[in-house]
Amino acid sequence: MHDITNTSKRLNESLHLPVLVIIEPLLLPRTCILHVLRRELDEVEILDMATVQGLDCTSARDVRLVMLSIANKPIGDPSVEDDLAFVAECCPNAATVVLSNHDDEPTVQAAMQRGVRGFLSTSLPIEIAVAGLRLVLVGGAYRPLSVAGMNRIPDFEPPDVRALAPSYLMGEGTRVAIDRRVTDLTPREQQVLAELELGLPNKLIAAKLGLSESTVKMHIQHIMRKCAAHNRTEAVLRWRGRLPAQSRDHDPGEAPMHET
After folding, report:
1. DSSP states of 172-192
2. Residue 250 belongs to domain spanning
3. Model's pTM, two decimal places?
4. Which residues are within 8 A (CB) of 195 and not within 5 positions of it... i.e. 6 or more apart?
5. Last residue of a domain, one of 136, 160, 184
6. 244 with 177: CB under 8 angstroms?
7. Which residues, 6+ apart, have CB-to-CB distance to 183 below 8 Å?
8. What whole-number distance in Å separates Cα of residue 17 and Cα of residue 123?
9. What is the overall mean pLDDT for the chain?
10. Which of 86, 101, 108, 200 has the fewest CB atoms nearer than 10 Å to its CB?
């Protein structure tokens, strides 16, 4: 009886979680993606389906993101455009991420022009794909930074602060202003922060800037302290002047640092 009660409780809690939907026709890759994302994104419920028609069953759910696999198809393929239209119709409040076997500039541009909020290539490392999904989930937009073209800065739109900030930070009448300490960032810290905006993990930031991972982590800790931020995303938002400085009673130098 106790097990039944716990199972019922977990099911009821899952019904109130925001939902991420994976649409992939092939069972094996769909199952692999599902397994990885359920491990990495425990703040959302993740559903999987073979076709967009399965979205009809999600009308009562809070679908925040739909990841649509298009494999080798071009964005302009009629079937892809029909699928994108169906997703928009069934889940008007959800962001769409395309998973493609291609990562060429025309394909990425064509996807973004159609309102896609994220573009993931199957050639991306899994940690970058997960970071891109996190970015889209909080209101941002993501497109890949190819290893071959690391000097090319990809398009990025910062997350909507309303999706992230606690209510006490965004009270009515609050005038959002950048914290003065953010202007104290060193040139190297500004370079690292620019890479954080792209959702890159420490390993790739280190490779791109020619630094060690420990040095990158040190710079991130300094950035978070100077921005009065508790995590990387909050530091990016403060840098862009979209969050007010959080009032604290202790010295900023003693701020707790989350694991990066």
Report:
1. TT------GGGGG--HHHHHH
2. 170-254
3. 0.57
4. 204, 205, 208, 209
5. 160
6. yes
7. none
8. 30
9. 76
10. 101
Q: Which helix (H) or strand (E) holds 34?
A: helix 27-40
Answer yes or no: is pLDDT of 241 > 70: no
pLDDT tens digits for range 148-199 = 343 343 444 444 433 443 333 333 333 333 344 445 788 888 889 888 888 7
3-state SS class at 85: helix
**Cα maximum dimension of the chain:** 61
Q: What percent of the chain has pLDDT over 90?
A: 36
Query: Model confidence at 121, in pLDDT bands (50, 70, 90)?
Result: very high
Q: For the domain that residue 106 is a member of, what is the CATH number?
A: 3.40.50.2300
Residues 57 and 125 in one domain: yes
Residues contacting residue 125 through CB under 8 Å, at least 6 positions apart: 204
What CATH number is attached to the domain comprising 223? 1.10.10.10
Structural domain count of the chain: 2
Are residue 116 and residue 54 in the same domain, yes or no?
A: yes
Radius of gyration, alpha carbons of the chain? 20
Give residue-wise pLDDT tens across range 211-223.
Answer: 888 899 999 988 8
Does residue 89 share a domain with residue 217? Answer: no
Which of 133, 160, 187 terminates a domain? The answer is: 160
